[in-house]
Amino acid sequence: MVFWGLYAGYSATLFRNLPAGVLSFSSFDYLQNAVLSRTMKAHLEPFQSACCGTLAGAICASLSTPLDVVKTRLIKGIHN
């Protein structure tokens, strides 16, 4: 019984991480392409890449927070 307790929140974590990962990578790709089209270069400078990653992370975090709250409440409810 203790072994199955390790996987109690697995599905909730999966339902949170999959959309967050897709959102993070797709927003970074969109921002990267937007910067590249404006600068007419083949690849980003490190600072530009860091800025795109920061903005993509902020977008992902702001949109996936409700899913994270649901995941946390489900896991707390399971273990109480």
Topology:
Elements (H helix, E strand, L loop, with lengths): L1 H4 L4 H30 L6 H34 L1
Helix pairs in contact: 2-3
Description:
By secondary structure, the protein is mostly helical. It has one domain (9-79). It is 85% helix and 0% strand. The chain has 3 helices and no strands. The chain has helices at residues 2-5, 10-39, 46-79. α2 (10-39) runs antiparallel to α3 (46-79). The mean pLDDT is 86.
Order of helices and strands: HHH
| Backbone shape | elongated
Number of domains as seen in the coordinates: 1
Helix content: over 70%
- The count of strands amounts to 0
Terminal residue distance: 15 Å
The main β sheet shows up as: none
How does the helix and strand content classify structurally? mainly alpha
The share of residues in extended strands comes to: under 5%
Average pLDDT figure? 86
Radius of gyration: 18 Å
- SS summary, helix count: 3
* Uncertain parts: none
Key features of this structure:
single chain; 80 residues; mainly alpha
Describe the structure in brief:
This protein has about 80 residues and is mainly alpha-helical.
